Amino acid sequence: MDTTAFLKIHAKSRGVRTPFGRMESYGESKGSRRVRASGRGSSTVGKLTASAASDWYLIGFTGPKAEAQAIKHQLADYLHHHLKLELSDAKTLITHARTSCARFLGYDIHTLHANDKHDQRGQRCINGAIGLRVPDHIVPTYCGKYMRQGKPVHLMQRVNDSAYSIVAQYQAEYRGIVQYYRLAYNLHRLARFKWVMELSLASTLAKKFKTSRAAIFRRYKTTLDTDDGRYRVLEVTVDRGPEKAPLKAHFGGVTLRWNKWVSISDTIEPIWSGRSEVVQRLLAQECELCGSTDMIEVHHIRKLADLARKGGGNPPKWVRIMARRRRKTLIVCQKCHNTIHSGRYDGPTLTKQATGELRDTESGHA
């Protein structure tokens, strides 16, 4: 089988650039069928299809393993002699799709086979079809980020954020994983991931409000109606006054049903914000340390690494807040700002080198 001729004709009708031209997705053109029917090359007629994404390629081949190895050698020779590139033997694998899975773009890809699956006519309907599945290591890996010693725990770095921000961030992370694996037929396995994240979210809110996890569920649990059905979720509502609709953030409400026809868009929609986070915090006119609304100012540090040098093993409260939020600004009232610079705020005396900011006396402030 003349692989180069096949790929060139196949690439002519497709759309992604490869070492042999352009090709994309599964399928074949009339030209590629003519190459095989003409008997050029091996007497064994094989079926070769390909899919490409970025610099990763997946080639599907129906035929003996010897011909699959010959195709691999032809690709390696072409890359070496024409593009001066080397094909990695460790990453370029030949996998039998029936007995094992090929890893491609985070999915496990293999050939389905089940004699007990029948269609409405009573005939076997999935044998030989290509199936995408969530790899076995995905659920334990992502659950581990929200667990300690085998149990879901709170995330201390998020405790100082608002309840709305905490719930919104958990939901964004959960939805992102589910939507990425939407094409996997075993998507339901992410139910454990959802359970772990939900308990971690409740623990984080409980740590923030110094209450129990059960009290958080009683306070925030509600139901949400979606196009896929009704779901029990945790929802936080922020009242913005009579002139604006309240802000709502919920966790859950994402279906785990397989949809092989779903359209997944890789286009990142831009999110335009009229104001930056620091401006929004400043407009709140509230001290993030004591809650005062008088004479609000902004305390700055030179870089986040300076926070690690303050206070030793018992840093001041304002240092802990900035370190957990990963922010170089802190909205404070003038009283708290002066006590920070004078070193009287819950910690040792601060220096100009540590804060990266001039003292009030140096900057000309009263």
Note the run of SSEs as H and E. HEEHEEHEEEHEEHHHEEEHEHEHHH
Distance between the termini: 85 Å
Oligomer: single chain
- Please identify the structural class as seen in this structure: alpha+beta
Largest sheet: 3 strands, antiparallel
Helical stretch tally: 12
Number of domains: 4
State the total count of DSSP E strands: 14
Radius of gyration: 29 Å
Mean pLDDT: 76
Description:
This protein is of the alpha+beta class. The chain folds into four domains: 3-91, no CATH class; 95-133, no CATH class; 138-251, no CATH class; 277-363, no CATH class. It has helices at residues 3-12, 30-37, 65-82, 138-143, 163-180, 191-209, 213-220, 277-283, 317-325, 334-342, 352-355, 360-363, and strands spanning 17-18, 21-22, 47-53, 56-62, 102-104, 107-111, 130-133, 147-148, 151-152, 221-226, 229-238, 247-251, 296-300, 329-333. The strands form six sheets. Strands 5-6-7 form a three-stranded antiparallel sheet, with no helix packed on it. The protein has a three-stranded antiparallel sheet with strand order 10-11-12. Strands 1-2 form a two-stranded antiparallel sheet. Strand 8 (147-148) and strand 9 form a beta hairpin. The chain is elongated, with a radius of gyration of 29 Å. 19% of the residues are buried. Mean pLDDT is 76; it is low at 9-45 and 347-366.
